């Protein structure tokens, strides 16, 4: 991707359609640029041949401007766009903002126009923002290339959205509250530049501390998710979503859980309103880290404390357990009624009384946030309380929230906390909601850096059998799996199924039955039944085409007649495919679960899990997750469900049963990754405590291939290489499960070796940092590790700058493997990977005393440049990489164990 600096730091601008006509877009843009005191050359272009516009030089055509132009701002009718874009291409202008509106009154009709714009932009090598956008405002650059009615105040937050109208309203809203921005823009119809491109650029700008995003449509969920995840690792990222048409994926009642899952996996806090966007930003900017998602409440009144406690319960929150400290808290009132939380102080309590309680609670690591509520009264002065609490809370590393209730008497107290930049609220409800904002953001951040446990499938599915299965369905021009095909697919991924027999001829099916089938269930299988989620919003009302607890052959034949009659009434046009018989396997302690996959128009494949069974409200309990799933994510998904609560009550070995369900979800996730044409699957499974998991019924269908929003593990990059003395190691991308091994790997280096790698003195690595180093987005970042006997002995870490198409690397090799050729193997794998990704240049910053690294770079043809900061920058172009790779001898003994 080219650099976007021409949009954000242009050194010259041409406004196409500039005018002095009052109210025209061209006039508004010129005036905004003038009022923002844009410091670089500004040119007006108008076919009418003005001598100047607002004192700036004017030209009839862009080609008449003799000096280079970085950015063109187009304010012309839609019918002129293509002609003007061609003119920009001829004179070498590479960045354009199309403010032009009215391209279509319906989004669907604007698609074709946008595609023509994009095709022409690529042909001319022009990047385009818009059409139908507000423009760009960058206060630090004195840039207001927009038709906004207000200029943006300077600040550390960036805003990017789709809607120009919402952008204008937010700009006005923020100006009234003194909220400033580092960047403010909307992308409109996004013919070329998308929000993901902008977020990528903003995430590398050190001036930007937080990013606010408004989304209407998502064209590439994978690309946007990667950009947001990268930004969320170093900045606060908040998002608000609006949609003209909110489609709900099959198998779900509401799409809100789908949006929540997407933003949670991105580490982004989703909000529902403009107030929520900025109040959420303010809370996150002021909050200290929250290490536990529970809250302790301290108040000098029972009523005000119960307001906070009730709001916490309404939001599904947790009160911290503080009763263990009751010996140190003898002055609390209503302790038996409240269980010591809320902690109620007498109304006349002083600031010191509050401090005595805070000092006890602050030492307890099991307590998350602490909310201090104070109500003014004749015997307790709010200002005095605040004067004593404010410096203590300011120094603390714990998350404190304060609420000084009232009006006249608490003005000075609130001023003290506001001036110190501390979290202070007007009401207990506001304070609790702010606590929840922080808790939700911390949860999203944990999803970025979690370390999953390892539960492997224990086998590799037979892909040839799978290909034969999918080819058979496609050749027969069907979308659904038959009874036998759906069951075969489940067996490929390690699922056990209830014994069954199936056939088109009912009499032949009955002849195959043995006594072990009774009592039996009989199912009439027809085409409509073969599709997953083939029911309305009430699963309990679904005609399931089944009879159960059939004691003998006579009962089977009676059930056949009734099912055939009901099917003729319920599904008269659905072709009957056959009859299936299964032995009844239900017992009192058996539990049913529903698991499967569906698709969302925006986010692609989704994994579903919840309570199962014909009488369960399956839709209400369905949990949603984006594939791929690791053990930790699968476990979290299960534990969110009501079905898990039932399992926890009934199971004799909860951990073993949970492991069975986790393995099933991971197998399903792998199935989704392996077969992008799988469009839907619904399986009803029976968990038999102490026996295992059985699939009772399954339906599946196919569609156009669709990739997941999250990138799967790139198993195709796994290989085994042979080093000197016939020693072999496995080279593969890092996994989240590698955190313990990575920590041990770093622990085997001394301080000087770590200084050469990390450019600073260090010996310890905390969980959060290690998790970030292991949990990576494989399209944005890559880490190759070398393993010998399951120990990491080498690491090559790669970062891709999407703005410059440049890849930076850093390498470490354990001392015992130095001189074995491992460093050379890691470097060669890096060059191969960079070439496959079409990277333009590979670079590394090296300390001058790091002789082995400099020698390795020299061997592979890197050029060394001594920088002013004392480091050495190694650079290698992709062409040079290819040439060098051809010169080097073949790597000895390489074997490719892909996907193992």
Q: Your description of this structure?
A:
The longest helix has 22 residues, at 428-449. The radius of gyration is 32 Å and the shape is globular. Strand 6 (95-98), helix 4 (107-124) and strand 7 (127-129) form a beta-alpha-beta unit. Among the domains are: 5-283, 3-Layer(aba) Sandwich (Rossmann fold); 288-449, Rossmann fold (3-Layer(aba) Sandwich); 715-887, Aminopeptidase (3-Layer(aba) Sandwich). It has 900 residues and is an alpha/beta fold. Helix 6 packs parallel to helix 7 and helix 13 runs parallel beside helix 14.
List the helices and strands and how they pair.
Blueprint: H1 5-8, E1 13-16, H2 25-35, E2 42-45, E3 52-53, E4 56-59, E5 71-74, H3 81-91, E6 95-98, H4 107-124, E7 127-129, E8 135-138, E9 143-146, E10 154-161, H5 164-176, E11 181-186, H6 195-203, E12 210-215, H7 221-232, E13 236-241, H8 256-265, E14 269-271, H9 274-286, E15 295-299, H10 302-314, H11 335-338, E16 343-344, H12 351-362, E17 369-374, H13 382-395, E18 400-404, H14 411-419, E19 424-425, H15 428-449, H16 463-475, H17 483-492, E20 496-497, E21 501-503, H18 506-512, E22 520-526, E23 546-550, H19 553-570, E24 576-583, E25 591-600, E26 604-611, H20 618-621, E27 623-625, H21 631-639, H22 642-650, H23 654-674, E28 678-688, E29 692-702, E30 719-722, E31 728-733, H24 739-747, H25 751-758, H26 767-774, E32 781-788, E33 791-801, E34 806-813, H27 822-836, E35 841-846, H28 851-859, E36 863-866, E37 872-877, H29 878-887
Parallel strand pairs: 1-2, 1-5, 2-4, 5-6, 6-7, 10-11, 10-12, 12-13, 13-14, 15-16, 15-17, 17-18, 18-19, 20-29, 34-35
Antiparallel strand pairs: 3-4, 8-9, 8-11, 21-24, 22-23, 22-24, 25-26, 25-28, 26-27, 28-29, 30-31, 31-32, 32-33, 33-34, 35-37, 36-37
Helix pairs in contact: 3-4, 6-7, 9-15, 10-15, 12-13, 13-14, 21-23, 27-29
